């Protein structure tokens, strides 16, 4: 039996793509392995978003070259594939920098992987096309993916934020047709999925062709999916503030399956920096938007992404970011030091912020965000919330799941409860998980 090892870096889209590559290799007779040393094919599904992420790949490729040599001595072939956004951004250059690499394939052409593997027997191959054919039409049907599954509904980005490589690595924004998504959703539900997370680089810009010929928005798609039997929960990520329309906000109010959680990156709280980043909205527009979302769903948990140390960022700009965070209050967040990326407009700026200043600002921001996260988690203690149980917990007799607010929850229960939503009374908040007990047959409180 041929074996494939697939490792993903970066965002949820890469995680989704990795499952699709596994499906594809499965059709070719490969089984997936978690042990890289026994793999006949090794796929690194890479991320280009920050320098650190991209550089990690090269150290991994160095180790793989050694492994490949050892396997060759034992008479075993190893094909090394670099997929994902570094593949797209660097293409053929990778072959020069990493001699052990056999195949370089971009995020829009990985459906051609079987053919590329055949060609790789005689030559090193690179495919970073944005092909006209639909990648998804060439992938095998989805296989079982667990209680909670990703579903790509939209790919690519036309926003061109000044710091970001995604429009270059993933290409222009494309929405998949509704009928295709419903078919994929059906397979996932039949395979045991109870929660679907609709993903896209700009998921709330979704505008797919509906079965009725009309253009469907994300709000309409969510409402429709919410009505399908077997689907208990819906989430979506990642959204841009400018695409957060009334219809989508209303879906949070009207559809109980649409979870009260919103990841809405703002990046900065300074109007000057937001303009320089080409985000096309100011800090107050974000505050007003949050007010509208909260009016529709008062208990919604908010999450965001932040970049500190964008070129030209002053202490006053940074203070404006801290003010925005204090005003809004986030349940969770990701924050990063600005990393100049080749080919992006911001990388040309002369007024770089010193590394030590970036570090200090990041520490200050993260301290505030962490306090808010802990505060949010502690506020759940004593409440009864619905938990979707997803997998065995850390210890025998425990099962792990998620609250509506995407908090990890551990309870004492049998594994036969996996795949169900149960009311749980939260008794304690740890640093990364909540702990609770089954609240019996009593109806769950508000959430
Ligand atoms: N499509 C999503 C996410 C893009 S990447 C969106 O539009 O929000 C995820 C996050 O990485 C971004 O939100 C941003 O905070 C961060 N990021 C992107 N480029 C970066 C860079 N050059 N340096 C540091 N952080 C970056
Ligand atoms: Fe990148 Fe901006 Fe597009 Fe998000 S919206 S993927 S940050 S260019
Ligand atoms: Fe990284 Fe590409 Fe996702 S750059 S964040 S893997 S879209």
UniProtKB/TrEMBL annotation:
Record's subcellular location: Cytoplasm
Protein name: tRNA-2-methylthio-N(6)-dimethylallyladenosine synthase
Reactions catalysed, as given in the entry: N(6)-dimethylallyladenosine(37) in tRNA + (sulfur carrier)-SH + AH2 + 2 S-adenosyl-L-methionine = 2-methylsulfanyl-N(6)-dimethylallyladenosine(37) in tRNA + (sulfur carrier)-H + 5'-deoxyadenosine + L-methionine + A + S-adenosyl-L-homocysteine + 2 H(+)
Binding site for [4Fe-4S] cluster 1: 11, 47, 85
Stated family: Belongs to the methylthiotransferase family. MiaB subfamily.
Function (record text): Catalyzes the methylthiolation of N6-(dimethylallyl)adenosine (i(6)A), leading to the formation of 2-methylthio-N6-(dimethylallyl)adenosine (ms(2)i(6)A) at position 37 in tRNAs that read codons beginning with uridine.
Organism: Methylobacterium oryzihabitans
UniProt cross-references to PANTHER family, sorted A to Z: CDK5 REGULATORY SUBUNIT-ASSOCIATED PROTEIN 1, MITOCHONDRIAL TRNA METHYLTHIOTRANSFERASE CDK5RAP1
